[in-house]
TrEMBL record, chain A:
It comes from Trichoplax adhaerens. Signal peptide: none annotated. One of its GO terms (cellular component) is cytoplasm. This is Multifunctional methyltransferase subunit TRM112-like protein. The lineage of its organism: Eukaryota, Metazoa, Placozoa, Uniplacotomia, Trichoplacea. The keyword Nucleus applies. Keywords: Cytoplasm, Nucleus. InterPro entries: Trm112 (IPR039127), Trm112-like (IPR005651). GO terms for biological process: maturation of LSU-rRNA; maturation of SSU-rRNA; positive regulation of rRNA processing. Its main location: cytoplasm.
UniProtKB/TrEMBL annotation, chain B:
GO terms for biological process: tRNA methylation; tRNA wobble uridine modification. Its cofactor is Fe(2+). GO terms for molecular function: metal ion binding; S-adenosylmethionine-dependent methyltransferase activity; tRNA (5-carboxymethyluridine(34)-5-O)-methyltransferase activity; tRNA binding. PROSITE patterns: FE2OG_OXY (PS51471). InterPro entries: AlkB-like (IPR027450), AlkB-like_sf (IPR037151), AlkB_tRNA_MeTrf/Diox (IPR051422), ALKBH8_RRM (IPR034256), Methyltransf_11 (IPR013216), Nucleotide-bd_a/b_plait_sf (IPR012677), Oxoglu/Fe-dep_dioxygenase_dom (IPR005123), RBD_domain_sf (IPR035979). It comes from Trichoplax adhaerens. It holds the Pfam family 2OG-FeII_Oxy_2. This is Fe2OG dioxygenase domain-containing protein. Keywords: Cytoplasm, Metal-binding, Methyltransferase, Nucleus, RNA-binding, S-adenosyl-L-methionine, Transferase, Zinc.
Amino acid sequence: MRLLTHNMLTSHVKGAESGYPLILEAAEVILRNVDFNPEFIKRMLSKVNWDVLYQTAKAIGHLNDIPEQLQPNVENDEEFLRKAHHVLLEVEVKEGHLICPTSKKKFQISNGIPNMLLGEESSS
Amino acid sequence: MDCNVQNNERIKLNKAQKKALRKQQRAKRILDRHNVLNEFKVSDQPSRHLLISNGGLGCGITRTILTSVFGRYGQITNIIMLPDKPFSVLSYQTVTDAKQAYDNIHAIELIAFCDTDVKYLVKSGIKAFILNYLEDYFCETNKDSNLGYPEGLLLIQNYVSEQEEDELLQSIGWYTNHGQASHDTHPCQTVQSDRESMQRRLKHRHVKHYGYEFRYDTNTVDKDKPLHATIPSKCRYICQRMTDDGYIQHQPDQLTVNEYMPGQAGIPPHIDTHSAFQDQIVSLSLLSQIVMDFRHPDGTRISINLPRRSLLVMSGECRYLWSHGITPRKYDVVCDDNDNNSNITLLERSRRVSFTFRKIRHSPCNCKYPNSCDTQLNLLSKAEVNCNPCTDKEAASLEREYVYNIYDNIADHFSGTRHSPWPVIANFLTSLPEGSMVLDIGCGNGKYMNVNKSLYMVGCDRSSGLVSICGERGFEVILCDILNLPFQSQAFDACICIAVIHHLSTTKRRIEALKECIRILRRDGVALVYVWALEQDQRNIDKEKMKHNTSANLSTDGVLTNREADTGVRKFKLRHFEKQDLLVPWHYNNRHNKKFENVANNSASNQTLYHRYYHVFMESELISMCKAINNVTIRESFYDRGNWCVILNKISD
């Protein structure tokens, strides 16, 4: 699971007011080379919750020097875009957990795939 | 003659009574030794529950025997029999009944019952049952322990004599226990071609077939290929005896003889295929005893000792629902036949030969256990099987059993049949702006995940088997349920949901699923939805229409079009549906499953049939569903390859 995906994930545990953002605990992280496409990253910047991205990258130790605040006019800062590219797309959590911030329910990430099934349907 | 009375009037006891008392006290001690559950407490007062200290499975006593002897004194409510234990516990509805039974059975010679059912008991050395009352409370807690015989199992001890045992073995040309080799000179009337199938060295046992070859790969027979060798005439009197005794209804026409050598492996748990054989399946154990394991689908496991020269009759639930097998072991724990009261002994397995008689079935099986019945599973797609759930819980359970579990089972095979993206769907994805965030809801093996590399595609599916395949292919996927998509609202620019919503089994759930697809879209986001169409036959007839509609481009005029994006040559399968809610078979090829790799290489046996639940949509139904969601407009609606399809625009949050 990439951090860009994590940025959109939430949990829907009944009774929990907000499942966003999920706390990420990474037991194993892999880095995978992805072709750098500045246009793509620029578009992503308008879509991600930067604060969540920053905090999560920091929590798993893969901050890669991205700034805490998204600065204006970064669209032409290639160095910054490359750093963001790395954090968004190249850092993959292979094993670990996602934790609902309010209910504390744990969702396992196994072989790169988060299991977001809630208890009641996952009995199969 | 309850214990209280005995204590007070000891002086008056005669010799026989003293003997009975000694046995009764001994029974108490035995109980202590065997008290696995620590819950069996002997009571001095009459109660509804009787401990029959020499009336357990370990002594070869069957439920049937107990019912027959004890049933005449009142209504039996429960019988607890533990594997290998010499005792059993029997409960009556009332204390009066239990007292009546106690007074009439305890230490009374069984010969007095002169009943065919108990005759063999006397033969096997049990002269009288020794009883004790038991305290109430434990019997209630053990009511559901279900550790007796499987329903429908009968075990008849000493069914053949030693002489008959010899004759039977000789009739098939095998060694007897006395070591005389008698060769295949006997009248099996075999021809050379049959001999191979009749007598085959399996990995762990020696086997011979008569009438038909029993196939261990499928637990069935080839009905079209009877063997030249029918059941040897010298075995037939046994078949007649079993029919006369009422253990079987039909004269068997198939016999499998197995020889198990000491220390060799057993036989894996299996159910003889329903469609292949009639109800009663009987098996004689010769030369040596063996412990056979019976397993219920709920996980209950019961081990039963089949003594030498006993007849095992499996009928009803035992034949159709319970699997049976023999665990490879060198020793079995059994009750020593020479001491019916107590001795559990460890017996080394020695050479055993079993004669299993079956009757080939020529009509469909209509047993009461459809989930274990191949005949009925095959008919499921036509049957009225709970495809119209009333509650959410029922719906979820139907979907779990007939959608998610099935996809997990067939994931690898399913994936192997899903290669090329359909043009209309691929075009939808390529038409999206670069950098769009797209969710593939029900992504399957990920066949659309890689169509347009300029998108950020995330896939999700309810089948862990399928998401694993995506994971291995390097796609970004989540295991989740469509009714609870774990994504923030408005996170995506577009989504596709191909062949998913038809797996939800109520209208409410289908609408909820569609709402979830829309919820995760931003305003102006776009969704492509495909569901199976009921009207596939009709389309088949309408060939002209399909030929004229070869365009695979999206029209953007907002008019409802009826556009088959097809090349005119259909490579996909058109189906005929008789109703909207149904189970659709999936022929799973076991080649794809490594678990079965070592099983038979016969093509017929390599297929397993699964059924997936579908709600197939009528033409207007998908549209009405979309109209039930107030923040979308239908940009397009069309028919493609047996599916009703819509492209929706989210117009507000």
